[in-house]
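hey m, so remember when u said the tokens were messed up on ur end? i reran from scratch. heres the input so u can diff it against urs
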Amino acid sequence: MMFRKFIFLFSITCFFACDPSDTDAKPNIILFFVDDLGWQDTSVPFWDKKTPLNEKYKTPNMERLSAKGVKFTNAYSTPVCSPTRVSLITGMNAARHRVTNWTLYPDKKQPMELNHPTLDFPEWNYNGVTTDSTIKQAAHATPLAQILKDNGYYTVHAGKGHFGAIGYPAEDPINLGFNVNIAGHAAGAPGSYLGSENFGNRDKFGVWSVPGLEKYHGKPIFLTQALTQEALLALKQPLESKQPFFLYLSLYGVHTPLMANQKYIDFYLNQGLSVTEAKYASMIESMDEALGSVLDFVEEEQIEKETVVLFMSDNGGLSAVARGGRKHIHNAPLNSGKGSIYEGGIRVPMMVYWPGVTKANSIEKTPVIIEDFFPSLLSVAGIENYETIQKVDGKDFTNLLKASENKVLDRPLFWHYPNEWGPTGPGIGSFSAVRKGNWKLIYFHEDQHYELYDLGNDIREQNNLLVNEGLKAKELAIVLKDYLISVDAQMPRDKVSQRQIPYYSIDEL
């Protein structure tokens, strides 16, 4: 009798301990990551008012996600692709991890960096991120996906990788802790978005050919939709085994080449957009369709209550090249675009929906930056006692998601780009910058001049206050200098004198 009573009590205990509705169960995490999506490339306004650009694009599923959760109006990435992605997966600021430019070819800097008229650029970590400390010119780190995997998550990478150079481990996201890799490799753009063109798998596209989607070759499907279908199919295994999952859905879109999704382009042509801009708008709507597929999936699978969905872009919207119309105004009111340290190059759309935590249709104005995703996603997963090889610069922003919490995340944000991107335009070049509160100071390396802006009153960065606010400029210059020294940030050298560009320009302040 006592034995039967023990068995009964044991069974009841196991039932409640294993109940999938247990509040201690780890949530699923979906990070929907878009390439080159500008702050204004959406019908969701991330400013305090709608603009003509918000009326230009159709993104109903971004509106849907925004209505469910919290919209961040001061979210930042780095100005170009790989530095952002390495900051995401390591939690390090680019100044620390030194993957400061976009990666592709092994063991060498970018060609445009070798021919600069006045600057010699440092030997940055052009081989990407790695878990192997013996690899040279690479950032040694414990990846986010590996920590999640080690703590019970089924980790899926789908889409653009761009974590490291050809022939090195980070070329394949599997080596960074993902159970599954769908179409991710070293290149940061596709040869083609069209299944009818095999996504660029032809001789002329070489390294740009998207791997692993052969089942869609020759078919009338857009790359964005093919990736999304495969990503959601990959979640079948963790759903069946009731294992929490982390899906990093990293779209190749809306990066160049600008190509029309025939499903959407006619609408924009009929609105009077140029062919180039209509192509771009059709790619944005394709992105939004993919987001809708993800949101539909979590609802249909009845996992919405235990799934956190985050939306982010890897840098500001393209404007210096390839776009239609006048350059450098495609992100207005923000100045410039991708590659620039002005707001158009680094401020991006960000949204988070955490059921039971975020308040519907809420807005968060606190500045956050891409490396913050590393500790924040681990916090969402309930993972506290993790160890990393690297020092993590990012700060946990989950308190900003909770309506009842004291929302404080007061610290300076830093950017560092001792490199050459290639195209020219406002704010494009070699630079460092700091934002603290509403103040933003930019240090341009080539001629060692500063610019100071009050973003609270001048989001367009039209009024350089360096002279009028000299004390504030000096204060921020010292903050920036001290940070760059603390992380041993690389700096370019003057090509004639071979002197390193200083961390601080005394003559300018």
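this time it looks ok to me. Confidence is low (pLDDT under 50) at residues 1-23. if urs says something different then somethings off w ur setup not the seq
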